[in-house]
Design brief:
Elements: E1 24-27, H1 37-48, E2 56-59, H2 76-90, E3 94-97, H3 108-114, E4 117-118, E5 123-127, E6 130-135, H4 145-154, H5 157-164, H6 168-187, H7 198-208, E7 212-215, E8 222-226, E9 233-237, E10 251-255, E11 261-265, E12 270-272
Parallel strand pairs: 1-2, 2-3, 3-4, 6-7, 7-9
Antiparallel strand pairs: 1-10, 5-6, 8-9, 10-11, 11-12
The structure holds manganese (II) ion.
């Protein structure tokens, strides 16, 4: 595996103008889609409140249930989400984007209109001197060989160019077909291959010379601590969002200006994480 490049996106904003409470917030796997009204409302609520109290917001993948291409921005639902993100960036919050396995077709037009900066997966971002690895998480799920093969295909420029040359409606239909196939495949997959591979995570820590990783994708929100003292490391996993579930699911992770990491749930509860420092 190649070592990850340091992201240039580390501009520290400690004395920022809008009086931020959080150094950065992280969110992923909201799986936004027009028929998920409650989830959409909750996410828009998050953007309108918590996100504005952050110096930076990192969208770490699968914000959308699917993304058929940036020309879909002209449809009402994507347009409303892009506008809501734009309001956050216009309010002075730096917003960054790492693609997920569902919305990797987000491109330059989305970035320009939403005002977000696209980052590679993984990225290392330094928060006040503390390097943190940010990733969606699917690339570390190497035990799922079939998925890794699919990922390599759809992330290739040739496949994407060919796919994006199809009319939008056809792309949406094709994605619908892929989603059905993936749901069927999921039923036959053992749960353990759907999690990140710990060896991959160890390699990432090593390559990045970092002791903290934040990722989503697995829908297994947690704070995993490895080792003790000087060699301790932490892997924080974001939750997915579903406000139609009982109880509603969703939440985000924060880093404050002292480097303290917290996991937050939609109901307002906070877990202060022991961090690897
Ligand atoms: Mn995902």
């Amino acid at each position: 595996m190649d070592c990850v490049a340091k992201s240039p996106a580390a501009a520290s904003n400690g004395m920022d103008a809008h009086g931020a409470r959080w150094r950065a917030l992280f969110v992923s796997d909201v799986h936004l889609q027009p028929n998920m009204l409650r989830t959409t409302e909750a996410f828009l609520g998050f953007l309108g409140t918590h996100a504005r109290r952050a110096s930076a917001l990192y969208l770490l993948g699968d914000l959308f249930e699917y993304w058929a291409g940036d020309d879909d921005i002209d449809s009402p639902y994507p347009r409303s989400i892009v506008a809501a993100i734009r309001e956050v960036t216009d309010a002075g919050v730096a917003v960054y984007w790492i693609a997920g396995n569902r919305d990797f077709l987000v491109g330059e037009r989305f970035a320009a209109e939403a005002g977000v900066t696209l980052l590679p997966d993984p990225s290392i971002v330094s928060f006040d001197g503390q390097p943190v690895i940010l990733s969606h998480g699917d690339a570390a799920c190497t035990d799922d060989a079939a998925y890794m093969q699919f990922r390599a295909l759809v992330r290739s420029p040739a496949w994407q160019q060919q796919f994006l040359s199809m009319p939008l409606d056809e792309r949406k239909q094709a994605i619908e077909g892929m989603r059905l196939q993936s749901k069927a495949a999921l039923r036959n997959k053992p749960a353990e291959i759907m999690d990140v591979n710990e060896d991959e995570i160890a390699v990432l820590f090593e390559c990045a010379q970092s002791r903290i990783i934040i990722h989503g994708h697995t829908h297994r929100p947690a704070g995993h601590l490895y080792g003790e003292g000087e060699s301790s490391r932490a892997r924080y996993v974001l939750p997915d969002w579903d406000c139609d579930a009982t109880p509603p699911r969703g939440g985000w992770i924060s880093i404050d200006f002292s480097g303290v990491v917290r996991r937050h749930t939609l109901d307002g509860s906070e877990i202060v994480q022991e961090s690897a420092r």
